[in-house]
Amino acid sequence: xxxxxxxxxxxxxxxxxxxxxxxxxxxxxxxxxxxxxxxxxxxxxxxxxxxxxxxxxxxxxxxxxxxxxxxxxxxxxxxxxxx
Length: 83
Fold this sequence. Notes:
Elements: E1 24-26, E2 31-33, H1 49-53, H2 69-82
Antiparallel strand pairs: 1-2
Domain 4Fe-4S ferredoxin-type: 1-29, 31-64
Keywords: 4Fe-4S, Electron transport, Iron, Iron-sulfur, Metal-binding, Repeat, Transport
InterPro entries: 4Fe4S_Fe-S-bd, 4Fe4S_Fe_S_CS, PSI_iron-sulfur_center, YfhL-like
């Protein structure tokens, strides 16, 4: 399941550099996560790094992009193969 940044985001800039897949970018008003690049850090870390550093707890799982750990690992393999 990809993650999503909610409107509680305070644009503190700490999440973007922590993302190993470059899935986080500045949107029109708040940071956004590209669900095609988000693997919840599967393949890189044990926990999502953006969630770890977020000071306002505004990065939940995205119910519109439900994926299993296996699917996230396959996405990780695809993303890193293209790199």
